[in-house]
Amino acid sequence: MQHNINGSDEFVNFCSSFNNKYLVNGWPDSKDEHWKFTRLQKLIPEQNLFKLDKNVFFPESLIEFSKDSLDASSIKFFTSDFFKKNKMTDVIFQNLSHAYKISFPSDFINDNPIIIDIELNESSWCSPVFLIDFGIKSNLNIIINVHLTSTSLFTPLFSLNLLNKSSVNLGLNILNSKNKKLINSGCINLIECNIHNNSQMNMVVSQQGINTARSDINVNLLEEKSQFHFNGVYFGRESHHNDITTSINHISPDCVSNQTVRGILDDKSVGVYQGGIKVFQNAQKTDGQQMSRVLLLSKLAESNTKPALEIFADDVSCSHGATIGELDKNQLFYLLSRGIDENEAKKILINAYLNELIGEINHLDLSDLVEKASNYWLKQNDMYVDS
């Protein structure tokens, strides 16, 4: 079932090797600690309803950077521990729809963001693999918008490699933009990011409006002074399930990582954040921070948060924290005492919560992505307050 593979015979054979692995391992399940909070049973029984989509157009904005083919030297990027241990890797390669290598040259700078819009058709399944290299001293802004329909499945795998002194701002926005009644839509992302000397990745992920969404992110800070800054946000309503899972590996000294994840959950929706930081013995002077904040708008909503620190070095500054709660009753009482209607007061507090998130993101294109996603969710739920 492989299509549109821009690769050598060696790489095609590598893709084919996953057939047997998939038959043996199947889909991830709750027996795997990594997947204990996100069960894919809603997607798995109906996977045959999805037709592999051969017609998703490759973004024109990337054509000039995709002239290199995937070859034997590319295989090593898809055989890391992260990909080998994750059953979703087998699922993606077994049902591969597209595979591309994208190379941005050294010293490449784009002032305006590269916008990639991916829109899936009804009953379609798109399962692409991307190997993306960012050249030395490159500086890029990329926004990926994934539009799912009421019955569609998107399972991409990304291997991102930042060479020395490069800087990348990457935004991933996942939503049901047509706001159709959902039947069974899902988006399961696997993302591995390898960051080399004095390079920096700023990443934002926004998830909303689909039945099951999971972003599984593994970051390797490979050389000194590499940095990873992450902001994640998910919006849940009805019975939507959103999961953001991160693993940050501090392998070299003097590296920085920051993770901030916020969720807002209504109705019977579920939110998951599993955030891990591992500091290797050689990684002295590590600075690794993570924070999760979830706002519950319903007593039936559920939040599962699992922060984890694994530290084998002495000279480090690492912390994690998590808060889960309802709207602040004191703030609500204050607004009510000023004669503001209760529903309007709740809207004001919800808008303030999301505006605080937007203010935490330093890069304009990425904060703009979250602002648009927030406003979209607020308007769909009749909670938007014009400031």
* H and E string: HHEHHEEEEEEEEEEEEEEEEEEHHH
Radius of gyration: 21 Å
The largest pleated sheet is described as:
11 strands, parallel
Global geometry = globular
Q: How many domains, in number, for the residues?
A: 1
Q: How much strand content do the residues show?
A: 35-45%
State the secondary-structure class.
Answer: alpha/beta
State the low-pLDDT regions, or none: none
| Chain-averaged pLDDT | 88
| Helical stretch tally | 7
Briefly summarize what is shown:
With 387 residues, this protein is α/β, with parallel strands linked by helices.
Protein architecture, described:
This protein has 387 residues and is an alpha/beta fold. The chain has one domain. Helix content is 19%, strand content 40%. It has seven helices and 19 strands. Strands 1, 2, 4, 5, 7, 8, 10, 12, 14, 16 and 18 form an eleven-stranded parallel β-sheet that branches. Helix 6 packs antiparallel against helix 7. The chain is globular and about 70 Å long. 43% of the residues are buried. The model has no long low-confidence stretch (mean pLDDT 88).
Secondary-structure map with pairings?
Elements: H1 9-16, H2 18-25, E1 51-52, H3 81-85, H4 87-94, E2 98-104, E3 114-119, E4 124-126, E5 128-134, E6 139-147, E7 151-154, E8 157-162, E9 167-175, E10 184-195, E11 200-208, E12 212-221, E13 227-236, E14 241-250, E15 256-265, E16 270-279, E17 286-296, E18 302-311, E19 316-325, H5 329-337, H6 342-359, H7 364-380
Parallel strand pairs: 1-4, 2-5, 3-6, 4-7, 5-8, 6-9, 7-10, 8-10, 9-11, 10-12, 11-13, 12-14, 13-15, 14-16, 15-17, 16-18, 17-19
